[in-house]
Amino acid sequence: MTQHTVVLDLAAALATPHRCSACGSTDLSTLTETHRDVLFTCPRCRLAWRFELGDLVPVESGTRTRA
Ligand SMILES: [Zn+2]
Predict the structure, then answer these.
(1) Quick one: CA dihedral 2, 24, 37, 67, positive or negative?
(2) N or C: which end of the chain has fewer CB within 10 A?
């Protein structure tokens, strides 16, 4: 078990919809978190999602967060 759990105070405040739009899984885990972006990864379909404008949008393959 290498599940990485992060307490999302900001996300909780914004009521982040932790549900994968592709497969409906609610078990999204945080991939990375910055001041501007919160990326989630779905353990079921392995898609990555970005929380943007109050919605989850798919992260294009190859897109990485810019540190
Ligand atoms: Zn999924």
Answers:
(1) positive
(2) N
